[in-house]
Amino acid sequence: MTGDERDGDGDDVDVSFVVPARNEADYLRGALASLTALDTAYAYEVLVVDGDSSDATREIAREYDATVVREAGESIAAARNLGAERASGEWLAFIDADTRVRANYLTELLGFVEANGLAAASSYCRITGPHRAKLMEATINHVFSRLERPILPGFNCFVHRRAFEEIGGFPEVSNEDTAFSRRLARRYPTAYCPTVLVESSGRRIVEDGLTGTLWHYARLDLDRLRTEY
User: Fold this and answer.
1) Is the backbone of residue 61 left (phi > 0), alpha (psi -120 to 50) or beta?
2) Where do the domains of the chain lie, and which CATH numbers do they carry?
3) Contact by Cβ (8 Å): 197, 110
4) Residue 214: how many CA atoms within 13 Å on its side-chain side?
5) What is a single Pfam family found in this protein's UniProt entry (predicted)?
6) How many C-beta atoms surround the C-beta of residue 210 within 10 A?
7) Could you report the per-residue pLDDT of 168-211, keeping only the tens digit for each?
8) What are phi and psi of 40, to 5 degrees?
9) What share of the chain is helix, strand, coil (3-state, %, to 5)?
10) CA dist., res. 181 & res. 119, Å (int)
11) How many whole angstroms separate alpha carbon 31 and alpha carbon 188?
């Protein structure tokens, strides 16, 4: 953690977008452009938590007037938690550097949580890339969303600040977003908005294949279970 660079005073912010990014110059511009294009009357801010990048990640964040928060690259959980700590909004929206939000994301999702009395939510998503990425997309949209304690993926997690703080944020464990979601849902109502509001990259599937990707997440989840999350 080495400090931050902030613009503006953060007054009257409804939603803070927290984007962890380490050497994400190839993807970050798309994520930030999508946030700039949001069609909403709500006030929002964008914080890019830079994990000690050696590429142009910080420069790209500044191009889009995002607040740059410096972090030592310890973990994605640490980056998300630091971003939340520095954020000003009543609601926290966590997305990844390779996520693009639809123009109606903020208005639709904030309306959904308020109408349903929720402390947190995700939405249906589209995973870009090879056709085999559609299996992951279907799992998120039609399996994660129907669990008794829905898994809110870290690339699309919308949560009220008070609930986030009361459960201690993202834990430092494998599959931190699953652990976070399950802990949160033990105490608060959470759900999925049945509208496709984000697109996320299927780059891991491109790099590792579907079998390699499934095995990667299976191993992480076994590690999570060993820590009793």
Assistant:
1) alpha
2) 3-226 (3.90.550.10)
3) no
4) 11
5) Glycos_transf_2
6) 16
7) 999 998 889 999 999 999 999 999 999 999 999 976 655 655 55
8) -155, 150
9) 40, 25, 35
10) 11
11) 29
Alpha-carbon span 161 to 56, nearest angstrom: 30
Length of the chain: 229
How far apart are alpha carbons 135 and 42 in whole angstroms? Answer: 34
Q: Tell me the C-alpha distance between 167 and 104, whole Å.
A: 29
Closest CA to 20 of 87, 119, 107: 87
DSSP string, 140-201: HHHTGGGSSS----TTEEEEEHHHHHHTTSS-SSTTHHHHHHHHHHHHS-EEEEEEEEEEEE
Q: Which two tokens stand for residue 120?
A: 């947190």
Q: State the CB neighbour count (10 A cutoff) for residue 113.
A: 20
Q: Which two tokens stand for residue 34?
A: 């999508």
Q: What is the pTM of this model?
A: 0.87
* 46 bridge partner residues: 17
Q: Are 45 and 13 in contact (CB under 8 A)?
A: yes
Q: Please answer whether residues 60 and 25 qualify as being in contact, where contact means their C-beta atoms are separated by less than 8 angstroms.
A: yes
- The Cα–Cα gap between 56 and 129 comes to 24
| Nearest by Cα to 188 from 99, 109, 120 | 120
Residue in the structure block whose two tokens are 């639809």: 102
- 215-to-26, 151, 208 alpha-carbon distances in Å: 26, 18, 10
Q: How many whole angstroms separate alpha carbon 169 and alpha carbon 84? A: 8
Model confidence over 91-108: pLDDT tens digits? 999 999 999 999 999 999
The token pair that represents 27 in the structure block: 């993807």
